[in-house]
Amino acid sequence: MRNYYQAQLDEINKKLLDMALLLENAIENSISALKENNPKFLEIGNDYEMQINGMEKDIESLCLNVILRQQPVL
Fold it and tell me: Are 26 and 55 in contact (CB under 8 A)?
């Protein structure tokens, strides 16, 4: 059971790192949009935002699943 729990935590950690990388790219894109005043960066930014929001929902769901399955039984 503990191995399954650790695997779930590892999956959450990996997804958080993936989302952090995507956030870093989104921030770099936003800085470029401000510097160059180019609307194409805004479209790319919208794509990043949709991906990040989807990842956030997935991570939240995984976390709730871990909490529900690992809570102590009285």
Answer: no
Alpha helices in 1-74 (DSSP H): 2-36, 40-70
Q: Are 44 and 29 in contact (CB under 8 A)?
A: yes
Give the tens place of pLDDT for each residue, 4-58: 889 999 999 999 999 999 999 999 999 998 898 888 888 898 999 999 999 999 9
d(CA 22, CA 35): 20
The position carrying tokens 């805004």 is: 42
Alpha-carbon dihedral angle through residues 53, 57, 58, 59, given to the nearest 10 degrees: 100
Of the CA atoms within 13 Å of residue 32, those in its CB half-sphere come to 14
For residues 24 and 20, what is the distance between their CA atoms, to the nearest angstrom? Answer: 6
Taking the C-alpha atoms of residue 34 and residue 68, their distance in angstroms, rounded to an integer, is 43
